[in-house]
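Priority: medium. Attachment 1 of 2:
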């Protein structure tokens, strides 16, 4: 039932985006679409996997699923809030559209492979562990690009940030995650 409801919400969001009047897609909307689509995919993985896979592969499946929840649902949902409210709060546009592209696509490319890094030195195949390690290290790319974008957006507006409680909350909340 949850998957069906979320799939309907995702479809409604995608149809709304498709029928929009403004041609540009803002960064916050990229992450919102991704959060919904990736969460749908993650719920399908939950339904297909853990009860049907025996042994160590079940542990690997759980590692992937948990990381998908954190990296492909919670992270994009948090970025939606920051990319939407931070520029509005400090009345300054996003620092760099290109950094936004790099941050988004590197998160999409590297995060799906990191879940197995919790099972190093286990019976899981070495090639899978190696991919998880390399992908985990490559996550520095989306982290740095997103942080550069956040702080670049606030540059020259620090005084406004100091007087703006929602903007301070967003910066501090992002720094803590």
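Attachment 2 of 2:
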């Amino acid at each position: 039932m949850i998957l069906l409801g979320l799939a309907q919400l995702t479809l409604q969001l995608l149809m709304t985006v498709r029928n929009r009047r403004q041609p540009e897609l803002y960064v916050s909307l990229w992450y919102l679409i991704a959060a919904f689509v990736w969460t749908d995919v993650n719920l399908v993985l939950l339904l297909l996997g853990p009860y049907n896979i025996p042994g160590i592969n079940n542990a690997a499946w759980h590692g992937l699923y948990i990381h998908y929840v954190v990296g492909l649902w919670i992270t994009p949902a948090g970025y939606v809030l920051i990319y939407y409210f931070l520029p509005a709060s400090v009345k300054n546009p996003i620092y760099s559209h290109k950094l936004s592209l790099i941050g988004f696509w590197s998160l999409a490319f590297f995060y799906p492979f990191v879940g197995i890094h919790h099972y190093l030195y286990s019976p899981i195949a070495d090639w899978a562990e190696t991919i998880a390690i390399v992908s985990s290290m490559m996550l520095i790319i989306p982290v740095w690009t997103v942080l550069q974008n956040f702080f670049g957006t606030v540059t020259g507006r620090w005084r406004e940030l100091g007087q703006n409680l929602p903007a301070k909350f967003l910066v501090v909340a992002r720094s803590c995650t």
